[in-house]
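#onboarding

Welcome to the new folks! Below is a worked example of what a typical request in this channel looks like: someone posts a single protein sequence, and someone else replies with the predicted structure as tokens. Don't worry about understanding the tokens yet, we'll cover that in week two.

Example request:
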Amino acid sequence: MSDENEIKIDLTNAKLDMQTLELRAARLPEAMREPFVWLGCYCREECGGEVDLLHKRFLAVSVEHDKTTWSKILRGMWQHDSKGRLAPAPCLSETKFIRAVNLLKNDSRIKEMGGRIPFVMTPTAQDIFNYIDLKRSPDRVNRFGVIIGETGSQKSASTGEYARLNNHGMVVKIEAPETPSMNQFMTDLSRSYGYNVTGSYLRKKQYVLETVTAKRTVIVENIQRLHDPRAGDKQPIFSFLQKLQEDTGCTVIMTLTPTFEKTLTGGLQRGFFEQFEGRAGGRRTFLRLPAYPPEDDVLAIAKAFGLQQAGQHADYLVKIAKEEGRIRRLFEDLQDAKIAAESEKEKLTIGHIRAVRGED
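Example response:
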């Protein structure tokens, strides 16, 4: 008869897919579960599943626990021996584990932003965050969300930051494939949960259905690419998302352009679109982003770059944000101006922006 404290541990199984990680996380103290899942996903996605490389990443942030410790933890042996029996003490204390993961998280965030335009929490970005939070609430009846905005209206940057902040796996974001390919869509979605992309379509689909739960959120960017105008009301990818939400209770957030909304509401697919209106709680519940960046957004971005006396130049900055590219145009000019100012060891001023735009 086996000891009640024994658990079955497959020492040959170093899988780091979402299902495996969550099964292992369930045996840990609650405070360790989210950091454990994050660490497993980080090892899978950033280290190619190699514990040796993960160990080196920890050493780089002055976390010096040996690689055997990390291997044991990731394999579900935090407080169990090689036979699955409960050990007298864990291989690493809960406090030290959480501290180590937080250090790695912070380092990962800094490196992610290296050389990139920084994310700025503008009022519009906050609206997007609040909208997703609302749709994810456990007591919500309608857990479909629709965000409508022009290209350059902060949709992608905001949903991407939301997914990054809301831990690996719990919120995933995927870009719609270039064409309405069900196979490619399933590949992208299953990969976001750690599935081996070489598997068959049916296995990928089964994996997604087994992994997605009511606690999960799927964000699909640019759903206009998923729509096949030749198919009329029969849209396989949209139908799959509807069924996935109905069967699992998960949250589905979709972003699209105003042009695509007009195509659906004014064309032959009107009936098809009404299905999504109902599941989202009606068109009035859609989040509609401003056509052009409002002044509050523009000033928040300018101040984040350190622009001196930004408020005095609001009209000029808003004008830039209304050029082709919209908010991206403003970020580009601010970034170029910031680089120029730093090279001269000066604070960023409106003069630097005018100079990089060739307006001096």
